[in-house]
Specification:
The chain is mainly β. The protein has 2 helices and 12 strands, in the order βββββββββββααβ.
């Protein structure tokens, strides 16, 4: 059966989702297809500034995660031809998608069997009401996406279960949601957790998300050839 194999490699803190973990061989550069949302330094889009720093210093203005922030390396091995493979960061309010010009984090096109997509995701809380999610790619391209809660509320996160999927077109990775100070929404989500993560089940996902007033999702959308 043709399928996409999903792998997640954890750093800094353990997160028991997989029994199988693989590593890229040294000096091997993964094939990433054609990432049309990636920009060379001399052709950056309007509003993007290129900064140069000494090795190991990071970038000023908190545009890189703190050293202690957990980083999750995501690698997807393609087992079927894919026309378009898009990584989204999207917001929903009362079940309605709120479109944003920056909702596409990265996009790969014309992937073939044997290709891989590789990136690092680092969710970082700057306050109880503010979350940054950093996305780092092998090319050096970095995106930082945000979620800030409304007054009197806080932001929390939950991860989705990762598993092998056969021609799935929607693959959720991370749920960010707005909660009250008493944790009412978290209690609802806890009823759906399996071993601390949300099962990837279409019926369960629809039922759970329908109970959330405001949330954001990091997920893959796949268009097969």
């Amino acid at each position: 059966m043709n399928r996409i194999l999903l792998f997640i490699i954890f750093q800094l803190i353990p997160f028991p989702i997989f029994s199988q973990v693989t590593k890229l061989p040294k000096k091997q550069t993964p094939s990433l297809g054609s990432p049309i949302a990636d920009f060379p330094q001399n052709k950056m889009p309007a509003g993007v500034t290129v900064l140069t720093t000494r090795r190991g210093e990071g970038i000023p203005g908190s545009t890189m995660p703190r050293p202690e922030t957990p980083r999750y390396k995501m690698r997807y091995e393609v087992r079927d031809s894919i026309k378009m493979f898009t990584l989204y960061f999207r917001e929903y309010i009362d079940g309605v998608l709120i479109h944003d010009d920056l909702e596409i984090v990265q996009r790969w096109v014309d992937l073939k069997e044997g290709d891989r997509t590789l990136f690092e995701m680092a969710p970082e809380f700057t306050a109880a009401s503010s979350l940054k999610v950093f996305f780092n790619f092998p090319s050096g391209f970095v995106r930082c996406c945000y979620m800030n809660s409304f007054s009197g509320k806080c932001v929390k996160i939950a991860y989705f279960e990762m598993e092998e999927v056969a021609r799935h077109t929607f693959i959720p990775l991370l749920l960010m949601y707005e909660d009250t100070e008493t944790g009412e929404v978290e209690q609802v989500i806890n009823n759906y957790l399996k071993d601390t993560v949300i099962p990837v089940n279409e019926i369960i996902n629809k039922e759970l998300l329908s109970k959330l007033s405001r949330y954001k999702l990091v997920y893959y959308d796949i268009v097969f050839k």
